[in-house]
Specification:
Length: 457
């Protein structure tokens, strides 16, 4: 309470002294702040420290430990029986999507309308504790995410630190194209078209010009579960028949899931080389073989959804430290909110398959990151992903380290976010109790500081 009052009073002073523009909602405190709680999560050690203190000056952390120096004039924020943690990272969000007819948002809603909703989504995510996010595509709102990111960075609106991709990159007639509508209506794709290596490079340059800070490519789709064909070796999949990529020899159930690849390994590499030239990386939507294998061979930054990974793909991901981003929350949400019984059965079959494969991936040592695919389900509720990853086979410590360390790696902020460490951004949250004993605590974030500014207490 004390902090809120002090920040507000500081703002009131700013409002009096500065005639214009006065839109900034927050200001970094001029005085040092010591945040104290019963516990603190040491990410690298994977341990809880008791008690925990973080000294913050300006937008950065100065010191961390069981007790830190309390400089003269420091404000102390005592958060009681909570655990201090770094701000949460969501490696897969869509600020420009909201619950409802996902693909028809492009048709029914204008980009200005969707941008207003995106600013509310950014605020909801931040208030839930997510201080850094990778937005995996505006899905038809083009580079409008540039405006949202800049408004956040300028302190005009509250929101997480963002990596943004603009529209994603997709094939003509591919995963995000508006297939099967009346051709005479010329319904637009939700992504930017690129059909070969030269077009991939050109699209990435255009997206970069418009403000994107990484590249998202659709590597597989559409997805299909082949039910009731378990007696058919390899489920009829020709790649399985030819090279036997299944993680276990003679494992026909592995091929009950089908998702055709979109880009060859060489085409993915062309995109990655252009992204590297621009100082960034490529994340892919890739759900099935051989697309997931092509992505692992190319060495992308992350393989998102990662439902079907062959033995060779898992081996490469472990060796090259390429995280999978399972996005369980969206699969569960679609299974529970399907429009018909038949659709529900299909979504549940896919979720069951995914859970089965995830356990195999965890056992194989595939690195994981935490990404929810929030947007089609309500923003601010995505910490459910932590709970589901624990439910399906990871320990709470492993999930938290996956979020913070691998998430920061994917967002290429590994030296500034994801840890409570001197020199890192003062992105600090607190959750009730001990999240290593009850991971659902991550869904009840009680305190949010980003860059030294308190947004929630
Ligand atoms: Zn997504």
């Amino acid at each position: 309470m004390k902090t809120c009052y002090m920040v507000l009073s500081a703002l009131a002073v700013i409002a009096l002294l500065e005639p214009a523009p006065g839109f900034a909602q927050e200001a970094t405190a001029k005085h040092p702040i010591v945040v104290h709680a019963a516990r603190l999560f040491d990410v690298e050690a994977g341990k809880i420290v008791t008690p925990g203190e973080v000294l913050v000056e300006g937008e950065r952390i100065v010191a961390v430990g069981t007790s830190v120096e309390h400089p003269a004039g420091a404000e102390v924020i005592d958060l009681g029986d909570t655990t201090l943690m770094p701000g949460l990272i969501d490696a897969h969000v869509h600020l420009f999507l909201h619950p409802g007819a996902e693909d028809l948002q492009t048709v029914e809603e204008s980009v200005p309308q969707r941008t207003i909703l995106a600013t509310l989504a950014a605020k909801a995510d931040l208030m839930a504790g997510f201080t850094a996010e990778r937005d995996m595509g505006t899905e038809g709102a083009g580079s409008a995410d540039t405006a949202v990111m800049r408004a956040i960075n300028d302190g005009l609106i509250p929101g997480p630190r963002l990596r943004i991709s603009g529209n994603a990159v997709d094939l003509l007639g591919g995963h995000e194209d508006a297939n099967h509508y009346n051709p005479a209506q010329h319904v637009l794709s939700n992504a930017d078209y690129a059909n070969n290596a030269d077009e991939i490079v050109a699209v990435i340059r255009e997206q970069h010009k418009e403000g994107s800070t990484f590249v998202k490519m659709y590597e597989t789709g559409p997805d299909q579960m082949v039910a009731g064909e378990r007696a058919i070796p390899c489920g009829g999949n020709p790649i399985c028949e030819a090279v036997g990529l299944g993680p276990v020899a003679g494992d026909p159930e592995f091929w009950n899931f089908h998702s055709p690849y979109q880009y060859t390994e060489a085409q993915l590499k062309a995109g990655m080389e252009e992204a590297a030239r621009l100082g960034t990386n490529v994340g892919v939507h890739a759900q099935g073989e051989p697309g997931t294998l092509y992505a692992a061979e190319a060495g992308v930054a992350s393989i998102d959804h990662a439902t079907q990974l062959s033995g060779e793909t898992m081996r490469l991901m472990k060796e090259r430290h390429i995280p999978a981003v399972p996005t369980f929350t969206i699969f569960e949400y679609f299974a529970e909110h399907a429009p018909s019984a038949a659709a529900a059965a299909r979504e549940h079959a896919m979720l069951d398959y995914k859970i089965h494969e995830f356990k195999r991936q965890v056992a194989a040592g595939v690195p994981m990151a935490v990404g929810s695919d929030v947007g089609p389900f309500p923003h601010g509720t995505q910490a459910k992903e932590f709970e589901l990853m624990v439910q399906y086979g990871m320990t709470p410590v492993a999930v938290l380290q996956a979020d913070y360390l691998n998430g920061a790696q994917i967002l290429t902020w590994q030296n500034s976010v994801g840890q409570l460490k001197a020199g890192y951004y003062a992105d600090v949250v607190a959750v009730p109790g001990n999240p290593l004993e009850d991971i659902t605590a991550m869904e009840r974030v009680a305190f949010v500081m980003k860059g030294g500014v308190v947004y929630r207490q």
